[in-house]
Amino acid sequence: MLLVVTYSRAARTTLRNVRRTHESAVVRELGRAALFEETELGAFLALRLRAKHGDDVQIERTQPFNEFAAVREAVRDAAEAYEDREAASTPYVKFAAGTDHPDPDSMRGTDL
Amino acid sequence: MRVIVDGRSYEGRVIDLTGTDVSAATAVESVGATDPPIHVDCPVPGDAHEHVRRLPPETFDRRAALAAAARALGHASPARSALDEARSELADLSAPSVDVDAARRRVAETGEKEERLRERVAELRGRLQARREIDADTTAVEAQLNEATSRLAEAETERIAAEQALERAEAVARDARDSRERRLELEDRVANREREIRRDLAAAVWDRFRAAIRSVPGTATVGAAPGTYDGDRVTAALAVARLAPLDAPVVVDGLDRIDGAEAAASILEAPVIYIG
């Protein structure tokens, strides 16, 4: 899908108008952003916004996130285990210390 | 005030142009203009005048008109300084422009070129193989393959460089979006403060507005709370014209509910140019 984010009041207004007139090409509305269908019409609408508002319009191409394909098991396990922790106040760093769970710094430095 | 039409001069606080061929649009356009179609000698119109310069008005924003009238009467809103602050911060904020377009285009072009050359290399390899199988001369094809292979290597390097340049440009664009984000916040804040100020100012003259509504022709009801108005825009505009301090004339154009120029001036408590 195409994620369109706006960064000015004028661009936001145009986005709102586009959503209203081309409901079928818009998959989701998220305030000043929207997900457009990945079709030529979706791209056309996104590009029209950019032609009108320049850098105030950000267009990203998105795809569904498959954690089983994109993320190593240790990270998935760590997320589950942390959400299962006993004390809600335990910060993750402390939770991960002395276990096999990855520490935040190593995760930060590793691209998916 | 003095108005000159076809060499004839009209003077006074009330000028009746019934019987001349001056249209309301011409009269409105002439009030306060530097190069007017007809000569109108009058004080410079203020912001409140803008809303009621022609009655009936073509469009009428009641809240904005009331705010302008309140301002003309000397009212101010406590939100004013917050608005000024947000406006000045907004003016100081510059969102850098980043040319990611060119970088994107280069990635697409170098990628396409690489793809074309890759196909060409595959095709030449196939041809070479076929010639070898029938023991034909391969010298020419080998030379072509060598050339295509080295051009492919170059294209690959170009594509990688283009991708790196795009990554850098996108990182800069991401940072620039932080200031765009901030600018949007400020734009919203300015708009909110402006609304708040309009609300405050309209509230400041609400009682005068209620009283004015009772003194102008028309059926409208005004509640005690600011903003509670039920009636047509013409009545509201007449009331605003009455309560606002107006130095420049209001052009009254064929308002059935007002009978003549003098009546208009006394209802509106303002200088009037009356068009029959």
Automatic annotation (TrEMBL), chain A:
Residues 1-64, 66-112 form the DUF7855 domain. Pfam families: DUF7855, DUF7855_C. Residues 92-112 are annotated as: Disordered. This is Uncharacterized protein. Residues 100-112 have a biased composition (Basic and acidic residues). It comes from Haloplanus rubicundus.
From TrEMBL, chain B:
This is Uncharacterized protein. Keywords: Coiled coil. InterPro entries: DUF7856 (IPR057178). It comes from the Archaea. Residues 100-196 form a coiled coil. It comes from Haloplanus rubicundus.
